[in-house]
Amino acid sequence: MTTLLLHKPYGVLSQFTRESGSRWGCLAEFVDVPDVYAAGRLDADSEGLLLLTSNGRLQQQLTDPRFGHWRTYWVQVEGVPDEQRLQQLRDGVVIQEKLTRPAKARWLQGDAIPALQERTPPVRWRASIPTSWIELSLREGRNRQVRRMTAAVGLPTLRLVRSSIDLMDGGPRLNLEGLAQGCWRPTTAEEQKRLTRLISNRRGRPRDGSPPG
């Protein structure tokens, strides 16, 4: 099983082929390893951690929301989050007539603000409106979910970076540490063992008890 961790830059699709007429790049411009595919996706205008694997079962384990893997995002928003808005994000907001699952949300201040490379192109922001950073963790991945959630509580997203993926095995999260934008690395021997255990789990069942598929 081949598995890689990529720091996907802004402006890149989570696929290895360009779309005809699209202004977005593709993964083949950054990764030259054959037969790996994204386990989950990040929109072209999002950045951050993307796991690439040759194993279809691992793709399913990490993308099916019934397995309950937390994904954590750093979100730069317009405005200043108060506790009421953060609690709304935690409790769930209605998107397309459906309530989002409970989430984790906190306001990042001071040293907790992520030290990220500047985005290319840079974020467009209005001098008259302050910006803030939120850390948001979700167990589902609906279309444009993070952006829709922050917009629903009056905090439009300016920049979105996935920072980590929790394998839910008690070990450290897979994260962006040591990865510059556009760079990737193979999983370590220990990470590979953890991923192998994940897909060889005899139960093979999501955390809600229902069979996969």
Question: Count of helical segments?
Answer: 4
Whole-angstrom Rg: 17 Å
Write down the CATH topology of the largest domain.
Answer: Alpha-Beta Plaits
Could you name the CATH homologous superfamily of the largest domain? Pseudouridine synthase I, catalytic domain, N-terminal subdomain
- The CATH class of the largest domain turns out to be Alpha Beta
Taken from the alpha-carbon principal axes, the silhouette is globular
Helix content: 10-25%
SSE order, one letter for each helix or strand: EEEHEHEEEEHEEEH
Assign the CATH architecture of the largest domain.
2-Layer Sandwich
Compute the number of strand runs.
Answer: 11
**Overall tally of domains:** 2
User: Helix/strand-derived class?
Assistant: alpha+beta
First and last CA, distance: 21 Å
Largest sheet: 9 strands, mixed
Beta-strand residue fraction: 25-35%
The low-confidence runs, each spanning 5 or more residues with pLDDT under 50, are 208-213
Mean pLDDT: 92
